[in-house]
Amino acid sequence: MTKRFPDGFLWGGATAANQFEGAYNEDGKGLSTQDVAPKGIKGPITEVPTEDNMKLVGIDFYHRYKEDIKLFAEMGFKVFRLSIAWSRIFPNGDDQAPNEAGLKFYDNVFDELAKYGIEPLVTISHYETPLNLSKKYDGWVSRDLIKFYENYVRTIFTRYKNKVKYWLTFNEINSVLHAPFLSGGIYTDKEKLSKQDLYQAVHHELVASALAVKIGHEINPDFQIGCMVLSMPTYPLTPNPDDVIAVMKAEHMNYFFSDVHVRGVYPGYMKRYFRDNHIEIQFAEGDEEILKHTVDFISFSYYMSSCETADPAQKVAGKGNIMGGVPNPTLKASEWGWQIDPQGLRYVLNQFWDRYQKPLFIVENGLGAVDELVEDEDGNKTVIDDYRINYLNDHLVQVWEAIEDGVEVMGYTSWGCIDLVSASTAELKKRYGYIYVDRHDDGTGTLERYKKKSFYWYKEVIATNGESLK
């Protein structure tokens, strides 16, 4: 059967400001939490930026955006996912007035995208809380962050109301449970952070997200505003009912976030969890009404699935992923221990659709690998990344299967469409892109861009609207 995707399907790629922009201290930008996390998720956190932090330079998109967007246009992108660096707009987060130079930079980027007919898909907060808000307020533990986020949101919604249609409120918002500093700017050490403070921070983020939806629809009713969660379908390690219940509990912790975003109320299973763990969420007056401003669509990342078990002897965490989980003995893994499960993408698409009947948008999916730059027969530098092509092909076939199942899928933006710095490990050698960037973990390299074999493969996928998939 021909694997043609629906007309208007949004093909593209995804990035994050802190992983590819660079220019961390130029044109009035303040420091973010990323600028003091040189080794990624697992720390340490430094007092000031250090030279070994690859994100300070990234791949220099800040100065090379025209070159990069031209390459995206050559591939045929319909949409490009990027984030706005909050501290580029409000350097300290709690500033009264925005930084005009920061606003102007994104004006220029959006104008360049428009030149090629590429829709921007903008993440408002993507793992880069202004450092001042993290240190001074303990990040989202403080309710004060809602008003700072609101000020930021009003500023960018008003500025870009005629340039951006698609918005995401927070990147992988559920990851705050596992990486509170990275995801929520929470400065308190993870081991010392109480469940009470952690879930109060979650509440503040959920209220802020719903407030963004409310404000956005007031400023421009045509805005499409979505939530963004880290999806990881979970299978029982055995048919033992205890393992099935363990899966249910694990998935509740993820569904909690999308349930509130889509349904506008706290689900009963979380109310039980709060009771059982002596957590009392403080609702301010008006919070319940704000939460009823629900999202237009659900977006998510998908890299892997995992297993769960009630047997402590079998409960060995998988390598490399943020969310934990038990490795699946039937699956192979990437070089970084992320288990490869294309069918899991079809499964999670059906799960979300059956649960919500809201449009879905796959905004991250890809393979991080060590790429080797070689010369082709014409003497051009490239990467023969058949392993990446195979990975992406197999996942996109499963997206098509889900669409055939009746799932409404808006689009697909593969992660790291141009090589960038890894969020989890802060490495450049863990490459995802269709475009190779000559920069390395020791800081060397020319920053030149080279098209990989997958560049031409993805160009053909987009040109045929999926018909070229095998």
UniProtKB/TrEMBL annotation:
Q: One Pfam family name from the record?
A: Glyco_hydro_1
The record's listing under Gene3D superfamilies reads:
Glycosidases
GO biological process assignments: carbohydrate catabolic process
One GO cellular component assignment for this chain's record is: cytosol
Catalytic site positions? 364 (nucleophile)
Which residues fall in a coiled-coil region? none
Matching PANTHER family: 6-PHOSPHO-BETA-GLUCOSIDASE ASCB-RELATED, GLYCOSYL HYDROLASE
The protein here is known as: Glycoside hydrolase family 1 protein
| Record organism | Turicibacter bilis
